[in-house]
Design a protein that fits this description.
It is built from 1 helix and 2 strands. The chain is of the alpha+beta class and 67 residues long.
Amino acid sequence: MTAPDPAIASVRAALERDLTTCSGCGQMPRLDVTTTPVAGDYPSIISVTRRCACPPPQYPTKEPADG
């Protein structure tokens, strides 16, 4: 088992300090923090996704062209 990355803990703590309840569902969202390794001596990319009880956004579907 690998040791937890201190950078992830730091990012999560910083974001959780400013976290507020969701305006849509009124619940406190959960933060999913993941990392993506990068080649070379560069640090991993840290991605944060905010999740709550709201349904995922619905985007309009592309309508077929008349023709």
